[in-house]
Amino acid sequence: MTETDPLAPLLDLADVASALDRAREQVDAALRHRALRRHGGAVAAEISLRSAVASAALDGHAHPVADVRAGTVTDPVVQGALRVAEAVPALADRWPRTPRQVLARLHVLAARGLVPADQLGRPVARPDVTPQSGVTPGPDVTLRLDGVSALVGGGTSVPTLLLAAVVHAELLALRPFAGPSGVVARAAARLTLVAAGTDPRGLLAVEVGHHERQPEYVGSAGAFATGTPDGVRSWLRHYLTAVELGAQELTRVADEVLANA
Questions:
Q1: What tens digit of pLDDT does each residue of 7-31 get?
Q2: Cα dihedral angle (224, 220, 181, 242), rounded to 10 degrees?
């Protein structure tokens, strides 16, 4: 790690290093589950489903997993989250090389049918309102997206769990796209873990962890947006807790699949 690494100071925030160690231990243990050797495909499919449902719920579109599994839910946010989840494996290789293009693709998948077609994949200046044709991103949006892209492209050497946390929170704070921007932010964090090899098969249900602690998720994301050390620390601790919960969800799913094999 170099002295100029922009994320290096995060490791010095109180309790972050110890929370990181705990999360990594949980991840390593979950990824060693014996069900993954023979039934990894079934586990991955169930995790993808549960993660997509949780991500949509975090954007205010909650539906029972069983209903979504049965195909009876037509909610466009849920359908967009499912499309995004399905696309993650194919986008992982491109994520570090062309992150802006991948973000655009995630938005197209997430927001189809929810925002005007000519705005799909395009950052907007005012993502809090319905964008009109011709709206272009403001300088702050562009600069901060460039900053996220630089980090994803190799601009930091901090542990991948911390990078994913920052990518997630930055995109939540920035809301660079209209519509279900949270779905895009959570997918970008997942892609960060997959692309770096921390979770190569996309098996950690981190979105489920966020959903289980939704009030904390919302509060800590808002705290991160303030830019204060305490705010950033609050988010990182939440994110790492969500990773632990996501690892526990993976273990539960793997146990279920193994029991039913």
A1: 999 999 999 999 999 999 999 999 9
A2: 120
Give this prediction's pTM.
Answer: 0.92
Closest CA to 172 of 159, 183, 161: 183
DSSP string, 157-223: -S-HHHHHHHHHHHHHHH--SSS-HHHHHHHHHHHHHHHTTSSTT----HHHHHHHTHHHHHHHHHH
What is the percent of the chain with per-residue pLDDT over 70, rounded to a whole number?
93
Tokens of 247: 């690892």
Cβ atoms 207, 188 nearer than 8 A: no
Amino acid at 97: R
d(CA 10, CA 157): 12
CA-to-CA distance for 135 and 94, rounded, in angstroms?
Answer: 27
Burial class from Cβ neighbours inside 10 Å (0-12, 13-18, 19+) for residue 81 reads buried
Q: Using one digit for the tens of pLDDT, what is the confidence trace for 247-258?
A: 999 999 999 999
Q: Spell out the residues 6+ positions from residue 106 whose beta carbon is closer than 8 angstroms to its own.
A: 84, 87, 91, 183, 184, 187, 188
